[in-house]
Every structure is written in structure tokens, then in C-alpha cells.
């Protein structure tokens, strides 16, 4: 017999009754039934009930066993009484009577329990992550992650992609976040960087003639943490293709994403990939207040400025006299009660606004009546016009925000989400995807008017060089994101592969040719030698698993994550370097004022 096990803790069933078996695992739970000891023995695969009575030759040793001890047992498989069968586990028809036991690893007093659903502070969970990972939910999340990546790889290979690896130690290349720098011992005073993404390398592969590339790529960005973002590193499905249009990229990646979500989505609806809408960045901001809208919520915001222009509601009327301002309405079907309107007003105040104007429509017996302060101020004619524009009726409401769109769009978007949740309008049993397209390449600083890049500077402008000769703020790029349930899952672009267009694009943003060559010389030089049109994208592995696992925090699907302060509490990172290490690198740490 094997030194540690003849079977896993998920394999035994009634067909094994009478056999002598060997199992190894962790003591999940101990139950003492007056001289009868029952232990749930757990390994990665499942749980088997083992038991002993005073007739067992090792009963005295078994009595010493405690939770999370790692043990090996030999015993006889017995059938459970019919009344004691546990249908919830594969081994529920049997139990193993212990004949021999070996303690492989005893456990100290536990800082957190593995058995049960107790909540523990995140600091405790991350400090003792190896214990936290023993819990059933965490094991399931990590297996889901592994299986999902395996599925992605197979789907990409089936589409004719080859997997290639790109460097981890490279040059600094701005991707919208801070680099992690690595000092060079052989070149004192110089630094490498960990790649924020394989962006330049995958483009260089296309120049090298590799037609289809993908990689499950580690990326490193020194970012502020969020619930859906790691502060240090993350993984992405990275891909690039030559001789493709934007639609070709969509047609390639969309079936992969749809297939993965169908495979691991636990039966939730996934719209057919060819039906995913393509929404312009401008419309997404208007309708949803976000470039990563949650389309499970059917609410679409609308501009209603004309109904308030010159109206009796002075706040909005005066606001609209200022250039660049507008009033937007958030329809709230079934939200037509003063109680709900007051709750949403309180939400707006928590978001730092004075409040949100609202109108709700109620049945007065002899007809429909519009209620609320706004209705009184603007009168029945304007109120009725708003109702008709929004397609609302009795029992419905609408909320209003005004000003320059960039100042209130994000709050309006959050309000839309809250309204959809509270009114039960958001379909929880669905993954709703949408392509966001036509991103502006440039933006103007409100104070100085200076033009700079708003989004990816390496995207091909729609219209090429000709587009760059006109108004920079009108230039749109072949850049796109894929949103799902309120999260950005994919981001990509058709690349600017022509040096003359790239130099012009950077010139508009105030970057001279010398600076572009200095910062992106490798790629710019390569483009002088017959670069093909190419494009691609990257999909966030961690966020995909987070959605599929129904988790709200990305740390629940990463094996060993950092905490909110970008610290590894288990490994004590970051740590102070030894003086010898600093000396060898020619570095000195300057103490920071506390």
C-alpha cells in the first residue's frame, strides 16, 4: 500500500465496503458521541467520515487529535445505516473504522477556523493565508481560476494562436500607472522596470512576422488598490493579431469570453457574442454615466435640458445659462413614492451633492398627478413633456442632475446602479456584455486648455493622418473596452503602426520627435521596417474569476494577494534591504520625515 493513501477523501463509496484503505488529510471536525469518536477527514478532493470506538487499537491516540492536525489513517470501510447517509457528499454512504493512525503534522492553536463560515478580519486572513486557503470556498475559487485559465488556453489554441512569453525585466514604458523599478547591479545608477503589460513586445512580435500571439501574462503596476484591482500585480489574457480590423478582434475574443462565461457561469444567461452591443464612449457616458456600464440594469439616462431652460426651477434654469452645462434625467420605473425619492436624495448628499431633484407620478383617483418640488416649480406642461420623453407612468419616478457632465456623470452612474438594485430592475441571473468604442484620443485641460492624451496614445486615429489635421478633441481612436456587469474586462486597440502618424499624434499632445524616440525608440525604430497593421487586447483574468465566483473583492480569487496597503503580511513584504545589498547596488535609502 502507498505510504500515505490508497484513495482520496472523495473516492470511497458503497462499492468499497469491506476493504482496508489508507487515507491522509486534515482533521476538519471532531465529534465525540459518548465513547464514539467521529472525525471528518478532509483533503483537496473532499471529506470522508472516519470513526473509532474503544475497541479501536489506537483509540487513545485518536482522542488526542485536534482540528487541522494532518494525519494518516488505516481502516475498514463500513456502510452507514440508511438513516445516517449524507447525500450532500460523495462519500456519504460510508465511513471508515480506524485501525491505525499516524500524526503527520500536529497543529498549534488556530488563529482562524477552517471549519464553518465564520468571518475574520482581512488582516488575519492574509497573515495566515495558508489556513484561509484551506477553507472550502477558497479552494473552490482557486480551482475555478485554474480551470478557467486552462479553458482559455484551449480556446486560444483552437483559434490558431500560439503562446509566447515576453520579458519580465525590461525598460520602463508608461501604461497609465507607476512602474516598479529594479536597480541594476551591472549598470550602477540605472534601473529596469517590471512590465505594466507586454504591450510593446507583443507589437514587436507582429513586426517580426508572428501572426497570432497570446499569453497568460503577469503585469506589474504600482497602483492604488480597489476592490476590483490589485495594488501590485495581476494576470491578463494578452493577445495580438496582424492584418486585422477592429471587428476582427471582436469576432476573435468575444466567442472566447462568451464560452468561458457559459462554461463556468453556473447556468446564468450569457447573450450570444454576436449580439453584444457596440456603444460609443460618448453614449455610454450619457446613458449610463460610465464607460463600463452594467447592462443588466435597463435604465438609460437622457438629456432633458430643454424642459428646464427658462423654467420656474431657478437652480437648473440659471445653470443652463452657463456654457457646456446640461440637465440629465435618471428614469426610475416603479420608484414613484416619496419615501424612495427621499432615500435617493440622501444618497446624493452622501456623494457630496446638495441633493437630487425628483418628480414622481401617482394616481389621484381622477387621473395621474406629478408630485415633488420640481413638478411644482416647472408646472404641469413641462412635467408632462418630461414624462412622455422618458416613457414613464403612474408609480414611476425620475431623478435629475445638472451641471457640466464630467462633474456629475460618475455620481449619476452610481445613482443609476443604486436605483436599479433597490427597485429590483437589475437582472442578477445574467452576464451582460457590451463593447465600448470610439474613445477620444485627446482631452483639454479645463484651466489651461492644454491638449493631452485622454486614452491610449498608441491607438490608430480613426481617419489616420487626415483626422489629426483637424480639431484634436474630435479625434476618435480605434480603441475599445469590453464591459460586463459594471466591470471593464477587456481593453484593446488597433495600433498606430505608422511612424509619421505616431509622431504627429504625440506632437499634438506636446511631445517632440526626440522625446518619442527616446521613450519608445525600440518600437518606433521597428515600425520603419515594414510594420503590418495590427491590433489586439487584454482580458483581466482576476476580474473574470471574481465575476464567475460571485465575489465582490478581487483578493478572494488571488492565491496570495497583497492587502489594501500593498503589503504581504504573510511574507513581511515590502522589507528593508540589507546594507550589503544596497552597497552592491550603489543605493542609499533616504529616511522619510514621519
Please outline the major beta sheet: 8 strands, mixed
| Overall morphology | globular
Find the structural class using helix and strand composition. alpha+beta
- Helix % is 25-40%
Terminal-residue CA separation:
62 Å
> What fraction strand?
15-25%
Number of strands: 24
Describe the structure concisely for a colleague:
The protein has 594 residues and is of the alpha+beta class. It is 30% helix and 24% strand.
Report on the structure:
The strands form six sheets. The protein has an eight-stranded mixed sheet with strand order 6-9-10-24-23-22-19-12, with helices on both faces. A hairpin with a 6-residue loop joins strand 20 and strand 21. It has 594 residues and is α+β, with helices and mostly antiparallel strands. The chain is 30% helix and 24% strand. It is built from 17 helices and 24 strands.
Task: Write out key terms for the chains shown.
594 residues; alpha+beta; five-stranded mixed beta barrel; 24 strands; globular
Blueprint (SSEs and pairs):
Blueprint: E1 20-32, E2 37-42, E3 47-52, H1 59-62, E4 70-79, E5 94-105, H2 122-127, H3 129-132, H4 136-158, E6 162-163, E7 180-183, E8 191-194, H5 199-207, E9 212-220, E10 233-242, H6 246-264, E11 269-270, E12 278-280, H7 281-288, E13 302-303, H8 305-308, H9 314-319, E14 326-332, H10 338-350, E15 357-363, E16 368-371, H11 373-390, E17 397-403, H12 405-422, E18 430-431, E19 433-437, E20 442-444, E21 451-453, H13 464-468, E22 479-484, E23 487-494, H14 499-508, H15 513-526, E24 534-540, H16 541-548, H17 579-585
Parallel strand pairs: 3-5, 6-9, 11-18, 12-19
Antiparallel strand pairs: 1-2, 1-4, 2-3, 4-5, 7-8, 9-10, 10-24, 13-14, 14-17, 15-16, 15-17, 19-22, 20-21, 22-23, 23-24
